[in-house]
Write a sequence for this structure.
């Protein structure tokens, strides 16, 4: 069956899935969705009423949500990189790390970015401070965890690293963390040098100007 990914190159969760696709050179048709375009937004909502991407189509199968998509690819379209460890206990640990990067790095980063897009007078200073505090806690945990590891699970590149790559990249843009967290910084540099994520960043570059500054 032919795979189609409904996505946008700037979205961190879409980038997470793109890393997985590029890791294994998995053939797919990219369908870029601009949520600012009402017609394209309506088309996505018709496909997936939640109205969020990424969404993967595999023939008559519809697979939403980045982690679920990568698990689906690992099972139905496997390649040289296996994203879910075969050992059930290692798989559980990997899923915890995947959720950690999504919920405790990516989401607070997105809170900061989203607040900068709000008009003056409607910004959530309290929420942003909480997001920054969460990022500081999370980065401290990453700093400790990556002291003696190459990837999130050790020597093997997994779905957790697919999640970490865009989450840490954007965090470094909105809340630079290099000095206090050398291990986390080195991990991000390894992720950026990984050919799959390097390709994702090249494709995102024309859209990075849409990221709010300041």
């Amino acid at each position: 069956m032919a795979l189609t990914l409904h996505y946008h190159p700037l979205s961190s969760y879409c980038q997470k899935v793109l890393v997985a696709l590029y890791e294994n050179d998995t053939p797919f048709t990219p369908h870029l969705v601009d949520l600012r375009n009402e017609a394209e937004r309506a088309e996505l909502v018709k496909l997936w009423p939640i109205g969020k991407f990424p969404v993967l189509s595999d023939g008559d199968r519809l697979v939403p949500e980045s982690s679920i998509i990568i698990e689906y690819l690992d099972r139905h379209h496997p390649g040289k990189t296996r994203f879910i460890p075969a050992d059930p206990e290692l798989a559980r640990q990997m899923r915890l790390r995947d959720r950690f990067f999504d919920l405790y790095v990516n989401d607070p980063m997105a809170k900061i970015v989203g607040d900068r897009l709000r008009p003056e007078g409607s910004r959530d200073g309290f929420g942003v401070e909480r997001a920054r505090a969460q990022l500081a806690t999370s980065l401290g945990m990453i700093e400790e965890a990556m002291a003696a590891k190459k990837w999130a699970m050790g020597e093997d590149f997994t779905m957790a690293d697919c999640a970490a790559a865009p989450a840490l990249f954007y965090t470094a843009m909105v809340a630079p963390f290099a000095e206090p967290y050398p291990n986390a910084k080195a991990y991000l540099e390894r992720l950026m040098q990984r050919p799959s994520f390097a390709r994702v960043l090249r494709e995102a570059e024309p859209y990075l100007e849409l990221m709010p500054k300041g």
Observations:
- Residues 34 and 116 are 20 Å apart (CA to CA).
- The chain has a mean pLDDT of 94.
- The two ends are 45 Å apart (CA to CA).
- The chain has two domains: 3-76, 88-194.
